[in-house]
Amino acid sequence: MSSYLPNGTILDNNYRIIELIGQGGFGITYKAENISLGNIVCIKELFISGNSTRGANNTVHSQNTKENSFIYFKERFVTEARDLAKFNNPGIVKVTRVFEQNETAYFVMDFVEGETLKSYVSKNGRLTLQMALSIMDGLMNALEYVHNKNTLHRDIKPDNVIIDKNGSVVLIDFGSARQFTEGNTITHTSMITPGYAPLEQYDERVKRGAFTDIYSLGATMYFLLTGQKPIPATSRNIEILTAPHNLFPDISVSLSSAVMLAMNLNPQDRFQTIAEMRKVLQSQKNQKLELTSAITTKAPDNAVIKDDTNRKDEKSIKKVIIIICLVLVIALFLIIAARLEVLSKRSAVDNLETQIIDSSVNSQEQTSTQEQVYADEQTYNEQVVKFEDTPIGFKDFIMKEWIDPQTKRSQLIGNEIFGKYGDYYTVDDRTQIFYYIYNQNTNTFDHIPQED
Fold this sequence. Notes:
The protein is of the alpha+beta class.
């Protein structure tokens, strides 16, 4: 059996079903005739997709036996429909009646003759900047009125926005609307339209607020400007949502950033109120592109230029910065090490130079001393020659002669006087030293062979 009511079905003894308009997660929408007044209306039937089935005599049955049963949904549906009936705004479809039948609930709305945004863009392509901003202006006025009544629409998307025959924007399908209290966490049933629903709508118990509808509003504008449906919020942690200006260069970066700000995955980083969002978009409409000056403190200045691509780039930039810092630290360490090595080498050179200078000084001193010895020895040699004929007092004299291995020249290096004739001993352990003893009989110096 079909899940839709057959055309011609009479509801509440006054409404005749003309045709099916569409079906969503929480209900089925029909075009119908108000028999008593003769005008066309729109009727919303509570019929939960995946949970409800159509039985005999058009009755609706629930397959859910848990606490959040179909009865619970029906009570909420009726209560909130009565609250919506109190709304009075030209941008919001008017609810005129609520009733129960076929074991489910219905509410009647004014029928808005026109075309949904989804249909219009599908046929005509993406909108011009001025047309998109004009539509958003009307949509924001309507949604701000709803929020001021402490109500969330929860299902804003191109299918639920109609451009009527006069070109006005009308927000329809409040079947998912829920009351909210600013700052409080309330359990909401999940109403999801992938691409337009923010992350918080995927969790039944999580804080919601005006920022929840603002995400959907931003996603709708994304569709108007690009003609493309945004990727689901749940996929954006692994897939990049390309900013509008990266798809179409004629879209300004500032306007593109405003859309991405409205669609920020973090609720606290979005526009927090419609007034904030309107202020930014109005500056675009007036061709004033000072976007950041229009952002309030609730929406950080740096958030306005962030889209999914920017977030990926920021992570890469942070990695690059960390790598650069590490390279700089290593380079600084190497420079310091090289500097220390240079200083060490310089110190070694200085020490070597000092040693060379000291060695030279010592060498000069030694040379001077040696020259003095040589001079003394030469003087004594001359004395020996002088007293050669009268060697009194030299009978026990021993001379030592050293042959320099480099110059091959003999040098007198010392002498010893002994008390007895013929005595001698070694007073120097240098090699190539020859000993002589004075011979009184011959009046000469005789060489004394040394034992090895």
